[in-house]
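Standup notes
- DV: blocked on the single-chain target, sequence here:
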Amino acid sequence: MTTASAQQPLPSVVFSSLDVAAPERFARWRELLGSTHAPMDLHSDHAADFRARQRVIGLGDVAVWPAAFPPVMFRRTAKLIRQSDPENYHLSLMLRGGGAVTWHGRELRTRPGVYHSNDSSRPVEIRTGAQPRRIVMIGVEVPKAVLPLPRQLADRAVGLPMPDGHGVGALLAQFLTQFVRSLTDYRLSDAPRLGAVVTDLVATVFAHTLDRENALPPHTHRYTTVLRIKAFIQQNLADPRLTPTAVAAAHNISTGYLHRIFRDEGVTVAALIRRTRLERARAELADPIRAGEHIHTIAARWGLTAAEFSRSFRAAYGMTPSDHRHLHLHLRRP
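- DV (later): unblocked, structure below
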């Protein structure tokens, strides 16, 4: 990849129903969905004036597609599978709306808070609800061949409840929503790395659902453990007892293993805690809403003593906390 091509934006296909004549909208969206996920029979009471938007973002073998659309019935039949099967696992992060999925004689509910998953090689019927409320979701397509989890385990996980509000499910949800919000920050050269992140997180969600995280390859397990630890640190910055030892204990690992898995991160756990606390406090010092709040109060809120805060702040930013506050509040004055 040349330097010029590496700086190109991530490849994506955008569909907006407003760009298509009303009678053609539903057929065009069905065609896009067939190429994104797999060929399906689609039916909707809103087909005559179908209002939808979708962006399909290519991350190497993986695709991520945020979408919003009115209620639809999707059906993937055995005949369609025989005609074309991309052999993908699909995961939907449901942000708004819901419905029901029927396969193998079972009916499962889809709703925010729980991922919907399916397999392009299995017949399925998905009804997104009879109410007129729009569905808002982020879909993920991962080829079975690249998912770092034994096929028989992944197949067992599909269709099981997978919470998106805690644990590794929350990590994947946070990654997907942040990625979609910050899409313009990424370039074509980022695609392989981003695709690998999505693949590792999806595999870990599947494995966690089955309580079989020991089946993940070492690099996937190590990577998702680092992500869990970083999220834990973010959530517990205000606790003055947050130390590498406390982090290791919270994740049932030794401090030695904690330090080993952070070697490739370019920062130690202690330095990450200190840097993140300083960043939070630094932002609050420049906030005019907190102009009357004592500097030591801000430091304490982020788990820092007054002496430690002053010393670490000067070392990191080349000025005292009070100088930083004065500079930024002065610049904000009209």
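- Follow-up: The radius of gyration is 24 Å.
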